[in-house]
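S.,

As promised, the NAP run. Input:
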Amino acid sequence: MQKIEMKTPLVEMDGDEMTRVLWKMIKESLILPYVDLKTEYYDLGLVFRERTHDKVTTDAANAVKRLGVGVKCATITPNEGRMSEYHLSEKYKSPNGTIRAILDGTVFRAPILIPSIKPAVRSWKKPIIIARHAYGDVYRCTEFRVPSKGKAELLFTADTGECTRQTIYDFEGPGVIQGMYNKDSSIASFARSCLNFAVSMKMDLWFSAKDTISKIYDQRFRDIFDEVYQNEFRQKFEENNLTYFYTLIDDAVARVIRSEGGFIWACKNYDGDVMSDMVSTAFGSLAMMSSVLVSPDGNYEYEAAHGTVTRHYYRYLNGERTSTNPVATIFAWSGALAKRGEKDNLPDLVQFGHRIEKAVLDTLNDGIMTKDLCSLSEDNEKEPVYTDEFLSAVKARLES
Ligand code: NAP
Ligand code: MG
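Predicted complex:
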């Protein structure tokens, strides 16, 4: 059989632990036999990050900027334990954070649905994709523990030297203060990424915040979304019969629960952090959640939403066969290949991406699944398969 040709290479970012093991298995069984794979390879595994003092992460992110599409394996974000485990000279930042900062991107998380796993919310029939603004707010705030009675003020000094001063609170005793910020440019990028993604997915876009209470901060988010929509996207939305609307976060939560799904929900940074965990848990499993980072200028980075599945890795190192779910990582590859095909005008590559996904769904629908899914499935007679057995079952369906 002739292999499917590629033009531009994919940016391939390898990772850590069990997902690194899955990465190799997926490539060898589902991709290399069928695609004349071209990649620019970056090893984001912690060992090589240490060797390059994390330069490899920056290089990989810049490569995605240059080439347009990347696929990333899960990676360790080091904590104290990892510092000694990997003999690190520095506590490196989260690779995802570094990549997001360079691409100025928004993360979209989408569940992979199968009929035998019912969402905890009965009305949900279609995926709900959460778009989280990944910059600023409480994640970059300045905090202060007020020790005693005193006056807290908000002071802004303009470049010209002009000052604006407002009282936050006249403290009669100890308390706490938090100062946070966001930038018009980052909010506009976020809006553009969400609106672009909605058009490319042909899905409605909801945006929620709390402008009734936060009359300047959240109002600014609302206004910028509206401006970008009116000036750059309204026509595209109308042509595609799509809707964009803003609503209060509390109203959005109520509507989401009553909905059938099938839309993109854009959230501010903190709301997105919390709501994406709620939505992914209600849809089933983190191992069935895919994730794509989209930059405002249209670069894409695909990955699984879960981590490196450490506990399974230690069992693997002990020589055990594990039943680790490779679905989200396969979907990262299929999504990246299809997007590469779309950008390079290679219909065969696009179709191959879709075919892998269909083979995975067919396998799951035939009742062949890893341990994490068996426990969620309606049919609790199911016997879990090992990862390699699952991949062989997918391969068999891909070939037929
Ligand atoms: P995790 O790797 O997602 O695993 C948490 C637990 O969820 C696992 O122990 C496993 O449960 C289950 N699980 C997750 N993915 C699974 C899969 N594909 N198949 C089967 N079960 C799965 O999260 P973590 O343990 O919090 O983090 C481990 C490492 O991953 C950390 O070093 C962290 O920094 C990193 N991390 C990376 C990313 C990323 O690169 N995007 C994201 C999150 C975390 P059982 O053990 O009960 O089977
Ligand atoms: Mg979270």
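The chain has three domains: 1-107+296-400, 118-140+183-283, 142-179. DSSP finds 14 helices and 14 strands in the chain.

- D.
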